[in-house]
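Posted in: Protein Modeling Q&A

I'm a second-year student putting together a small comparison for a lab meeting, and my supervisor asked me to include a predicted structure for Energy transducer TonB. I've never done this before, so apologies if this is the wrong subforum. The sequence is pasted below exactly as I got it from our records. If anyone can share the structure token output, I'd also love a short note on what stands out.
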Amino acid sequence: MEPKKNPQLDLRRNSLLYFFVGMTLVLLMAYLALELKTYYQDDSWDVGELKVDDQLIEDATILKIKLPEPPKPKIQTPPKIEIKNNDEKIEETVIEASDTNQDTEIAKVEDVAVAEDDIPEEIPFILIENAPIFPGCENENTEKEKRDCFQEMIQKHIRKNFRYPDPAKEMGLQGRVSIMFTIDKDGSINNLRLRGPHESLEKEAARIISKLPEMKPGEQRGIPVKVSYSLPITFKLN
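Accepted answer (user: helix_wrangler)
Welcome! Here is the predicted structure, written out as tokens:
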């Protein structure tokens, strides 16, 4: 039986060759398209170009400054030398030595004046060298323990003698009263100063402070001095 088609006219016979030829042409055209470069003849559109008008350029002004002439040196007149006759007697000034020697008298200790200590009249509690001692704190060893004991005894004294004033209760008054007083050189309490929200609260705070016992006074450099102490008392209704 004979075939219906002519083998010479079969298109599939050289299909692989045609494929490679076509691919080569396509790659060549793509390469030429990528490598193609174009140049603009006119660059007037370039905004990066800066053109400066010649009329805007200013010439630097040349200033001529006349410097003052240097001062002329002063010519000093040479001292006048006088020649004295040999017959004239000239008294020479004798300069005595100020160094001490064995004949120099030494001042007595009693005659030497001693400057007084510049200790202030009143020193705050936090700055005093030896703080006042509250009765019952004498057995404390260190200065810090004595200070802590002092403040603790002050708080106990306030809690023990505290009493809310009746007028303040009726009016619903409450607040903090700032107290400052001075422990004198003899250990007594003086110079009481109060500031609070109402007079009745200030009177109660003054009554509590007035019941403080006498204390051992504070000392600065071993000398009894006045010591100022401040504390608040808070009045609060339940």
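A couple of things worth pointing out for your meeting: DSSP finds four helices and six strands in the chain. Strands lie at 122-124, 175-183, 189-195, 219-220, 223-224, 226-235.
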